[in-house]
Amino acid sequence: MPEEWRRSVLVPNFKNKGDVQSCSNYRRIKLMSHTMKLWERVVEVRLRKVVEICEQQYGFMPRKSTTNAIFALRILMEKYRDGQRELHCVFVDLEKAYDRVPREELWYCMRKSGVAEKYVRVVQDMYERSRTVVRCAVGQTEEFKVEVGLHQGSALSPFLFAIVMDQLSEEVRQESPWTMMFADDIVICSESREQVEDSLERWRFALERRGMKVSCSKTEYMCVNEREGSGTVRLQGEEVKKVQEFKYLGSTVQSNGECGKEVKKRVQAGWNGWRKVSGVLCDRKISARIKGKVYRTVVRPAMLYGLETVSLRKRLESELEVAELKMLRFSLGVTRLDRIRNEYIRGTAHVGRLGDKVREARLRWFGHVQRRDNEYIDKEGGVRVQGQL
């Protein structure tokens, strides 16, 4: 492989929270050769033909997305609330998961997954003599070797990580939806606190003996239909943080089954997107039709994300539509004092009702589930829960 392909540039990106002088508060974006990424895509296509990843892995898998995992978790929680039974969920956080993967462990997992030796050697060649520089405000650092972890920004790394997690969790994972993984985001569910605590400890042992590390401070525990005195979960003697809500794959799930906070998050995400393109949307020289296209491309997807898995009440749907109309009025330079009807505002911008778009998304998702095989529907949508006696 050409030596130029082995070189990369690391760009630190501040997370906008915590100490600005702490390296842990920065995301690492690695810029690699485009030709190298093309070569990685070729290798990835060939690896996917021979490697079968477990059904519990939703990340970067064909015909699966974050919506699948969010839907499975919400359906499971909903059925336990309907049955008035407790459901215990632990959201496991891995410390710098991609950066901690030992190279020898990667080669071992690839061979165990049935990857031919010639492809193992190809991937080994990609990682051999890899080096990078860090780009900062005053220039670039000196070049240094990278001898552990997967390449950040690589087209092949997500699938390699899925192979590693598939092998490391082989002895401890349960069937979906009791165990779900989206890359390094792991959810463990059980009907009792003792069972979920035992599962968490077995996961920790299985991962840490192979070079990974579970972060107890960032791992969180949530109980659905909690009874008094149900207690909490401990990991290696340390109490796991207990929460009433958790942001799972960008969608907020609440232990009481409400969706109000998720709707508020969607509204906030919509406003964040609107502000990013406000220079275009508020420009009087740009036509309303173009503004509508920009709105539908940038703002609306942020507001609709994950809502096909949420049971929206009329009040919550109204909150979304009110926020959307405020954005459209700002974009068109219209206020409520102008006494212009909402239908005219939507027609001018060529933007349909948000509630109708949510229902369309639900119908598309329903069709997606129905087209899958029966095993998929049973495991994500047909969990049987015995009611409380």
From TrEMBL:
Residue span(s) of domain Reverse transcriptase: 1-253
Documented EC number(s): 3.1.26.4
Pfam family, one: RVT_1
MF annotations from Gene Ontology: RNA-DNA hybrid ribonuclease activity
SUPFAM superfamilies: DNA/RNA polymerases (SSF56672)
Gene3D superfamilies recorded: 3.30.70.270
Signal peptide span: none
Enzyme category, top tier: hydrolase
Domain of life assignment: Eukaryota
Family: Belongs to the beta type-B retroviral polymerase family. HERV class-II K(HML-2) pol subfamily.
Listed name of the protein: ribonuclease H
